[in-house]
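Session log. Operator J.P. requested a structure for one protein chain; no other inputs attached. Running the standard single-chain path with token output.
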Amino acid sequence: MPLLDRNLQRILKVALSIEHNPVARYLTEHHAPVHEELVTSPKVWSIICPRPDHWHVMAGPIVSRGQLVGAVGCTRDRSMPAFDTQNLADLSGICLHLSIWAATVRSLPQSFKTDSAKPTLRERLTARELQIVELVALGRTNAEIGTELWITENSVKQALKRMFRKLEVSSRAEMVAQLMQLRVGAIA
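Structure written below.
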């Protein structure tokens, strides 16, 4: 094995291990976003990760069912400012969305056990209702949906009530989750 490959393996072994890397250890133990200045000094960090493009690092957890299933990492080089609390808050939001997505994807196999007596989403909703679901999934408000579909805001509200009953859900998020399950099922 060439010397460069051995050095890279040694650096990665140290940089990614929870024993040697305080950022990885904090992330693993706390399941919370962290940047290097919260857990170590700049001098110690430069020893752990001597790469100039990783002078500043920030990592956030992707959690599903209470387990760390992944992480999101961001790096900055020496010439850029260190990560701050606003960066951590932004990363926290991203990680929350990814964690929800991971939990949804992990639960899909159970939810795809089809009950032949229960019609699919496409069979339960009209074409107009499917349009509304798509717009809800895009984050549109009732007023925006009404404008886009040329119907009143009240018509959108009434359609959503009907759709909630048909789909046996109580929120827009649950309704969109069913739409996502349908899409993933179509891909699988």
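Operator note: The longest helix spans residues 85-111.
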